[in-house]
Every structure is written in C-alpha cells, then in structure tokens.
Amino acid sequence: MNSNYIAFEGIDGSGKTSIIENLSDILNSQNKDHIIVREPGGTSVGEGIRELLLSHDYQVNPLAEALLMSASRAQLIQETVKPSLDSGQIVITDRSAYSSVAYQGVGRELGYKKIYELNDLAIKSIWPKKVVLLDIDPKVSLSRQKIVDRIGSGEIEFFQKVRSGYLQLAKEFENDFLVLNAEKNIDVNIEAICGWLEIDNSK
Ligand code: TYD
C-alpha cells in the first residue's frame, strides 16, 4: 500500500518544491490521480502548528519542536494520507517523518533512533515507501534560498548534520531511497525519478 506514498526530502534550498511541481505536471498529463501534501502542515491543525514552528516570533526548544512536528504529522496521516492511500491514490509529500529524523534527531541532536521511534508512533508506522533525497552541499543550498523561516535560518554546521542524518537514513533504508545530486540539471533529475518510479515520461 505504501508504495503509492512518495516523499521528497532534502535540506532547505535543495529544490524539492520545483521537482514536485514538475512531477505533478507529468502525472496530470497521464491522468494519474494524485494529491500533494506538505509537512509540517497539510491540514488545518497542521497549518496552525506550522505557524508556531516556523515563525521567527517564537523560540521553540528542540524537544518541543520534535513533538510539534510529529503532532502535525499524526493529524495529516490520519486525516489525509491514510484515507487517500486506502482509496488507491498516489500521495506525494513535500517532507515526511524522515525530515524529523534528520533535522530533530541528528541536526538538533535529540537522537536518530529516538526520533525515529517517536515518529513511528505518530504515523502508525506508515512510512513513505519511495523517498527521493535531493542531496546537496549546504554551502550551495543556503545561497539558493529566498524566503528563510526560523529553522531554515540555522547555521551551516546544523545543515551539515542534517545532511549526514539524511545520508544515514538512505544507507539504512537503501531499498526505499533514491539519492540524487540536487546540483544537477532539473530535467536530468526528473528523468531519473520517473525511471525509478516507473512513470512514463516520453513526451
Ligand atoms: P519546508 O516547508 O519544506 O521548507 P523548505 O521548502 O525551505 O525546505 O520545511 C520548513 C522547515 O521545517 C525546514 O527548515 C525543515 C523543517 N522541518 C524540520 O525541521 N523537521 C520536520 O520534520 C519537517 C517536516 C520540517
């Protein structure tokens, strides 16, 4: 069932959003029914939590940050992701529980395993089965960014840790992850993604 659950992951400025838009256009051109959600957020409860998490007006401590991320996710999974997957739809998510393992677990040093377990509880073990990791050097990605939220405005050392967390996940779950170089041309990466997801991209 979870093989229809596709996540895009990467540090801030890795270009997930443009890749998702491109993939969505391809799916639409083939009348492939799909929904796109984002984390944190994606539901009205979740969007409220997102505001708390990303606004520069609040100083959220790391543990509260991890718990709020997982709370937003618990709501999204129950309200949207699970029912959509159950009805046979493709669900594309801009970030997933894997973001928390990388950002809160490794970046904030709350513990890879602990944050994995916390999220496993929050999502009732519904992990995306296809994860595209857009890997990039933080020095490059940070210079690409336009609007910077509270978490995205962290130090370069923080993003280096987040990146290493992602690479650790990709190694542990190598059957579920596709790691791409986010500095490559977008068309090259889209082709690789379509090939991996077995989506026909012949125009
Ligand atoms: P996002 O909206 O994807 O921002 P961007 O498009 O700039 O990457 O994510 C917002 C921020 O939240 C981003 O800095 C990553 C962070 N984040 C976490 O720290 N943990 C999480 O579990 C999630 C989902 C996001």
How would you sum up this structure, described in words?
- The model has no long low-confidence stretch (mean pLDDT 96).
- By secondary structure, the protein is α/β, with parallel strands linked by helices.
- α3 packs antiparallel against α4.
- Helix content is 53%, strand content 13%.
- It has a 5-stranded parallel sheet, sandwiched between helices.
- The chain has one domain: P-loop containing nucleotide triphosphate hydrolases (Rossmann fold, 3-Layer(aba) Sandwich), CATH 3.40.50.
- It is globular.
- The structure holds thymidine-5'-diphosphate.
- Thymidine-5'-diphosphate binds next to α4.
How are the elements arranged and paired?
Blueprint (H helix, E strand, L loop, with lengths): L4 E5 L6 H14 L4 E5 L5 H11 L7 H25 L3 E5 L2 H11 L4 H11 L7 E6 L2 H7 L11 H17 L4 E5 L4 H12 L6
Parallel strand pairs: 1-3, 1-4, 2-3, 4-5
Helix pairs in contact: 1-8, 2-3, 3-4, 3-5, 4-5, 4-7
Bound molecules: thymidine-5'-diphosphate.
Thymidine-5'-diphosphate binds next to helix 4.
Write a brief caption for the model.
This protein has 203 residues and is α/β, with parallel strands linked by helices. 53% of the residues lie in helices and 13% in strands.
Question: Which structural traits does this protein have?
Answer:
203 residues; alpha/beta; Rossmann fold; five-stranded parallel beta sheet; 13% strand; binds thymidine-5'-diphosphate
